[in-house]
Amino acid sequence: MTFAEIVWQLAGGMGVSIQLFVITLLLSLPLGLVIALGRMSKNGLLSGFIKFYISIMRGTPLMLQLMVVYFGPYYIFGIKVTNDYRIWAALIGFVLNYAAYFAEIYRSGIQSMPVGQYEAAKLLGYSKGQTFFIIILPQVIKRILPSVTNEVITLVKDTSLAFTISVAEMFTTAKALASSQTSMMPFVAAGLFYYIFNFVVAWGMEFIEKKLDYYR
User: Which domain holds residue 123?
Assistant: First the structure.
């Protein structure tokens, strides 16, 4: 099998990897903000529960979390799962994991904002909701973007962990090809795919950072 044929074979798996990446990002970013607000809540029960959830997500391997989400319904509740559930389990695992990391990034950004801005907004007649979404949140997004970029780049590489529950993403395809062809070439091609994918993502995030850096 030529290198071009290997690349063509990997293209299908790359589509799954991109799907995992995009959906995880679209869901985990807003969910992370909700979790961050709950983490900062004055309700001790809610704050404590979310703090425990974040500690579990950050303190255990993502690979283990994916396995729990996929095998849990059967071993815990006796629910039979189909092959179609694999991709859903991967998405659930990725979203829950990355939402926890994004929540802490959001929290650090929100808590870094000067109290004076809240007081000034109150004097101008803004409600708490208006103050947060119109004044605070846009500044928070600017501050946390470099940290978010690091997590987004990590997500590109972490999509390969979906092989744990046999989701046919690119790394799974590369491993199967390497085994059948007894060659390292599929892994080289996969590495090239991941590098290009990461390069495009990093360029996109850098472009957004420059657009938001409107005071320089």
Answer: 3-212
